[in-house]
Amino acid sequence: QQQVKQSPQSLIVQKGGISIINCAYENTAFDYFPWYQQFPGKGPALLIAIRPDVSEKKEGRFTISFNKSAKQFSLHIMDSQPGDSATYFCAAVGSGDKLTFGTGTRLAVRP
Amino acid sequence: KAGVTQTPRYLIKTRGQQVTLSCSPISGHRSVSWYQQTPGQGLQFLFEYFSETQRNKGNFPGRFSGRQFSNSRSEMNVSTLELGDSALYLCASSSVGGGNNEQFFGPGTRLTVL
């Protein structure tokens, strides 16, 4: 049962453009929403995270937008760079305290 | 500070065999979680250990088991391997455990079942 739906599956963006990845969840008990970045041959690494008491969180070029009523959240990468090319996973945590991941988005930033 | 280490990095087994994977967490971290990553199912939570006790478990059959030692190192065992067990197995450590605390992932063990 997929509790966190992520789209798109893959994304190609030109250097300097904006990359947008969307996630939707079903379980209203989720109360922590991290994004992980994974490069080939490496494990995922925490990029940025948000709790549902705020609608937006920004760290450098990375922004999470959160819509609690729609049960959706998204990652925006501003001024995308070739070094941002990686697979991005959204995730959610709630009661039970375990990470439930989205299916991942493979981002390619063209020079 | 050294990161999470996993051994071996690559493993090839045949159906019916069993396998043991090892994870050494970041020094001082007491929680170790294990995940299975496949192209079809993505990242799925297997279990979490904290101070040698299993604190949480995902929806995997009993063939998947684990343990944690007093030095926080953890092992994961899969018995009676099936072709579908081919995956990247990741472990992650955190200082206090729980998914809502930052987890630091190792590079994974790539298991291939023939």
Describe the model.
With 111 residues, chain A is mainly beta. Chain A has no helices and eleven strands. Chain A has strands at residues 4-7, 10-14, 19-25, 33-38, 45-50, 56-59, 62-67, 72-77, 86-92, 100-101, 105-110. In chain A, the strands form two sheets. In chain A, strands 2, 4, 5, 9, 10 and 11 form a six-stranded mixed sheet that branches. Chain A starts with a strand and ends with a strand. The model of chain A has no long low-confidence stretch (mean pLDDT 93). With 114 residues, chain B is an all-beta fold. In chain B, 0% of the residues lie in helices and 53% in strands. Chain B is built from no helices and eleven strands. Chain B has strands at 5-7, 10-13, 19-24, 31-38, 42-50, 53-57, 64-68, 74-78, 87-94, 104-105, 109-113. In chain B, the strands form two sheets. In chain B, strands 2, 4, 5, 6, 9, 10 and 11 form a seven-stranded mixed sheet that branches. In chain B, strand 7 and strand 8 (74-78) form a beta hairpin. Chain B starts with a strand and ends with a strand. The model of chain B has no long low-confidence stretch (mean pLDDT 93). Chains A and B meet through strand 5 and strand 10 of A and strand 5 and strand 10 of B.
Salient structural properties:
heterodimer, A: mainly beta, 6-stranded mixed β-sheet, 5-stranded antiparallel β-sheet, 53% strand, B: 114 residues, mainly beta, 7-stranded mixed β-sheet, 4-stranded antiparallel β-sheet, globular
**What are the secondary-structure elements of chain B, in order, as H or E?**
EEEEEEEEEEE
Question: What integer is the average pLDDT of chain B?
Answer: 93
Number of helices of chain B: 0
In one word, what is the shape of chain A? Answer: globular
Biggest β-sheet of chain B, characterized? 7 strands, mixed
β-strand amount of chain B: over 45%
Low-confidence parts of chain B:
none
Number of strands of chain B: 11
What can be said about the biggest beta sheet of chain A? Answer: 6 strands, mixed
Instruction: Give the helix level of chain B as a range of percent.
Output: under 10%
Straight-line distance between termini of chain B = 37 Å
What is the percent of helical residues of chain A? under 10%
Radius of gyration of chain B over alpha carbons?
Answer: 13 Å
Radius of gyration of chain A: 13 Å
Shape call of chain B: globular
